[in-house]
Amino acid sequence: MDEYASISQFISRAVYGIDHQRADIVSEAWAEDGHFTFTLDGAELRRAEGRDTIVERLNAGWAKPVGTSRHIVTNLWVEEVDDVSAVAVYYLTLASGRAQPPALRATGCYRDRLVRHGETWRWQERTLELDGPL
After folding, report:
1. Strands 103-117, 85-96: parallel, antiparallel or unpaired by DSSP?
2. In this predicted model, what pLDDT tens digit does every residue of 67-123 receive, in sequence order?
3. Cα 45 from Cα 80, distance rounded (Å)
4. In this structure, how many other beta carbons lie within 10 angstroms of the beta carbon of residue 73?
5. pTM for the structure as a whole
6. In sequence order, which residues have a C-beta less than 8 Å from that of residue 53 and are 6 or more positions away?
């Protein structure tokens, strides 16, 4: 499988894990010392450091009755790739699947620094630049 396809598959599986509340898949997607940052207009809103912290925060969010999320990722661009790391940039459209009609919750742009882990990838750094407040 070429690098673009490998990275695309990794991202698709990881966001599936988020949307289906699969802590096992999400945990596998993160490097142990990874970090996730949300920004708006260049200012940091939230940051989580370490795989365990990231998964704990997602679990806490899943416990709230907010409905089903659907992360729709598009326009994947693998900006850099080498034998050990890659940078992927792509858009997010976040929808609520249980609202009737389905509701748009957020849009933004991800910038991920990935590290190779065997035959797949893991998130080392993940930044979501939101287009507006959540």
Report:
1. antiparallel
2. 688 999 999 999 999 999 999 999 999 998 776 788 898 999 999 999 999 989 999
3. 26
4. 17
5. 0.91
6. none
